[in-house]
Specification:
It is globular, with a radius of gyration of 19 Å. It has a 6-stranded parallel sheet with strand order 3-4-2-1-5-6, with helices on both faces. α2 packs parallel to α3. β3, α4 and β4 form a beta-alpha-beta unit. Helices cover 45% and strands 14% of the residues. The chain is built from 8 helices and 6 strands. It is of the alpha/beta class. Bound molecules: 3-methylbut-3-enyl trihydrogen diphosphate (2 copies) and magnesium ion (MG). It comes from Paraburkholderia pallida. Keywords: Magnesium, Metal-binding, Transferase. InterPro entries: UPP_synth-like, UPP_synth-like_CS, UPP_synth-like_sf.
Amino acid sequence: MTYTSSTVRVPDVAAVPRHIAIIMDGNGRWATQRRLPRVAGHTRGVDAVRSVVEACVERGVEYLTLFAFSSENWRRPTDEVSFLMRLFVTALEREVARLHANGIRLRVVGDLSMFNERIQDLIRRAETKTARNTRLTLTIAANYGGRWDIMQATRKLVEAAAAAGEPVPVTEDTIGQYLAMSYAPEPDLFIRTGGEQRVSNFLLWQLAYAEFYFTDTFWPDFNADALNRAIGSYTERERRFGRTSAQLENQSQNADSLSC
Ligand code: IPE
Ligand code: IPE
Ligand code: MG
């Protein structure tokens, strides 16, 4: 299990974020600004996904998690929801071979039982095909909600206790091992495009110590340069995890003297 809680143990911090999580927002407004139907923005959004995945591979990011459809997005007009489902099918059909050729492992997290059989089958196939790839783990959050995630993890923990016939300790680690993304470290950098500054029920548990970066750029316009700006901002942050700046300085001085 890769997941370790940042509140239990201070994680190692690298210059480039190991894990970037993005709320890809602003597709509708991108299209409206151009007098196009909202869904045209979703189509262009897929192109942006392609370029950001490539940029992450180039920058050596290990995990990229993209919020594609929230558990609340079912509230949208039926036409838009149907369009998004079709787009998901097309993207799975067209992009998986390329991802695989580039050594990318694909995972999809969320309550997948709400999707039709075809989508569920495409997801299973894509995950199996790419399971052994190690260059980048691309996770698509679909019908995902942070509260759903904590709830389903808790449910599994309770079920494990029932199966074991004895109580299971409720700790950050035991909850963490049942979270949908237990295979990944917590996100280092959280990006939201499209100007809104909210979490919208994304990775509530896992964002505890992520660095937040908001940009007005609409998702279809987000590209490698925009990603590099976000990473640049991240690089300037001091990630203290509850400690003081002086403690961090001492730590790095000690590390320097050890390496001399
Ligand atoms: C994000 O763009 C994509 C999804 C939620 C599927 P939006 O569709 O939310 O775009 P805006 O926020 O309305 O511009
Ligand atoms: C969040 O975007 C979900 C995704 C990007 C998939 P929304 O545009 O749906 O978020 P809210 O509802 O405006 O906060
Ligand atoms: Mg939106």
